[in-house]
Design brief:
alpha+beta; 3 strands; rod-shaped
Length: about 130
């Protein structure tokens, strides 16, 4: 059964009550016995249900979350930009585009070369090691 904290607005008395979530909250203060001034307080709860990971469990969870983030970043550009920062992502894209343009230009230049344009660099000689 849940625990609820209450306070009377009239006399400032605070107390805890245990009742079902389906039940109506109290309307009468147990201290001043006046009706209509009771409010339910929002509290942090009992702490039950909070999971604390340590050691291998924590390491495993961090690794698992990192792998999920890596897979998502590989397919989702917006997610990747959010992880590394928009400015850094934009700079990487500019560098990637410049490199791709350079490679295209190198390919165009290489396609212009004919086999007759390539001249042998010289005579190939065998060098002896002196242990023969």
């Amino acid at each position: 059964m849940p625990t609820y904290e209450h306070r009377c607005k009239l006399c400032e008395h605070e107390w805890e009550d245990f009742y079902s979530i389906k039940a109506d909250p109290p309307t009468v203060c147990p201290s001043c016995e006046k009706e209509g001034g009771v409010e339910r307080l929002i509290s942090g709860g009992s702490g039950k249900g909070i999971m604390v990971l340590t050691g291998r469990e924590l390491k495993g969870r961090i690794y698992s979350d990192a792998m999920k983030a890596r897979k998502r970043a590989a397919t989702d550009e917006n997610y990747r930009a959010n992880i590394i920062g928009e400015d850094k992502y934009h700079q990487r894209q500019l560098k990637k585009d410049a490199l791709q343009n350079d490679l295209v230009n190198i390919g165009k230049d290489a396609s212009k070369i004919k086999s007759t344009d390539i001249k042998p660099s010289g005579v190939v000689r065998r060098v002896s090691s002196g242990k023969e």
